[in-house]
Amino acid sequence: MSAISAAEKVDGFTRKSVRKAQRQKRSHGSSQFRSPTSPIELSPLQQLKDAPLSEHQELFIQKLQQCGVLFDFYDSVSDLKSKEVKRATLNELIDFISTNRGVLVDSSYGDVVKMISTNIFRTLPPSDNPDFDPEEDEPTLEAAWPHLQLVYEFFLRFLESPDFQPSSAKRYIDQKFVLQLLELFDSEDPRERDFLKTILHRIYGKFLGLRAFIRKQINNIFLCFIYETDHFNGVAELLEILGSIINGFALPLKAEHKQFLIKVLIPMHTAKGLAMFHAQLAYCVVQFLEKDSALSEIVVRGLLKIWPKTCSQKEVMFLGEIEEILDVIEPSQFKKIHEPLFRQISKCVSSPHFQVAERALYFWNNEYILSLIEENINTVLPLMFGSLYRISKEHWNPTIVALVYNVLKTLMEMNSKLFDELTASYKVERQREKKKEHEREELWRKLEELKLKKTMSEIQSNANNIQIALTSKAGAK
């Protein structure tokens, strides 16, 4: 890397753009180790469709072994013939396993899993960009993807084959295998993470003995992400898998599942990169509440406790999630949380950031939320009234003012008597505040006058003293 100039040291934005330009020169990386020796040159084997049925198994194993040879994709011109042979063989294996029955016999499982493991399991390289921002920067794509994609496709067809027997595969697809698979979710390449998501979901569905282990390891990855690294590329994909898993939980929910919600999913909302996986996270939370509505109070109070103070983008996301929660909440649970919740919504409505205020006011477009508010109007209206009335007179954004007028109209229709009482008391309070403000200004004015009089008195006194001194000096002469 070239030395950083003095101008770049001063201007952080320039330095970042220089680094970005350097990264774009090489957007492909590979985590495959370079072989110290020359790779084996592959020769095409007989096509499976042309071979006698009695030779299919032996030829199938030979082709699997052939696909276990790795190539260096950094060098785009080396081993072109062998790379093409492997690519064609992988395509043939995918077609063979998809269209034929009786292909997977007990003796072939070990060779299949060995070929898959050799190709996909590797140490992921460190990111080219230590300041990688998934929202702005392009990810580093896997250079070996032309082969890796076909291996993942074969793995998926293997798991989905009608011939697949978990009882035979469990000797090879074990806890160690799953652990290595989960580590690959940190890959920067979104194409790879998408395959891994589907594959892990299939494994979870077919291997009952691995389910608790998979949940525990995902739990560990998330805890490490929250409290240690604050970085893991595959959070969104793992949450997507969890959404399906939670949906299948039996009732009543186990204590470990509730702990996962409280100790892992709620704290995940504090992550710096929440925008990258918030949709999946909110879905998981809502799935829990649909399973057990009694968790609503814990979840809402948990979110209120960690409500963002300085990030308007996160506030908008929190408000969206709260609306999703209110869509599934039971009226009895709403009564437990409506006071602290609407205190926070009142603050959001008053936000100078118009997107936050707008998102909070959109709650009144939801029919179910309106019905909940109406049932508890005697509590909700006093909490919201002051903010709404003040915004209707003072907010800088005309769209917000128009929305506030609609909300005030809706609230007035729900309980006109209480609305009139609050209007009268608000006006009295405002008059009292104005009176206090006037008295405070009057006090400051009097203090300024006293200070001015004192200053003038001191100036006059000093002038008299000077005059006396001058007169005395003249008399002495």
List keywords for this structure.
2 strands, elongated, 477 residues, mainly alpha, disordered N terminus, 68% helix, two-stranded parallel ribbon
SSE arrangement:
Layout (H helix, E strand, L loop, with lengths): L5 H5 L1 H13 L3 E2 L26 H11 L13 H20 L9 H12 L20 E2 L2 H16 L5 H4 L5 H9 L6 H17 L4 H19 L5 H13 L7 H11 L12 H14 L4 H10 L6 H17 L2 H19 L4 H8 L5 H9 L1 H18 L3 H17 L1 H61 L1
Parallel strand pairs: 1-2
Nearest-integer average pLDDT:
86
E-strand count? 2
The computed structural class is: mainly alpha
| Biggest sheet overview | 2 strands, parallel
Share of residues in helices: 55-70%
- Percent strand: under 5%
Number of continuous helical runs: 21
The low-confidence parts are 1-10, 18-26
H-E order: HHEHHHEHHHHHHHHHHHHHHHH
User: What gross morphology would you assign?
Assistant: elongated
Structural Rg: 35 Å
The neighbouring-strand order within the major sheet is 1-2
Distance between the termini: 86 Å
What can you tell me about this protein's structure?
The protein is mainly α and about 475 residues long. It is built from 21 helices and two strands. It has a two-stranded parallel sheet with strand order 1-2. The longest helix has about 60 residues, at about 415-475. Mean pLDDT is about 85; it is low at about 1-10 and about 20-25.
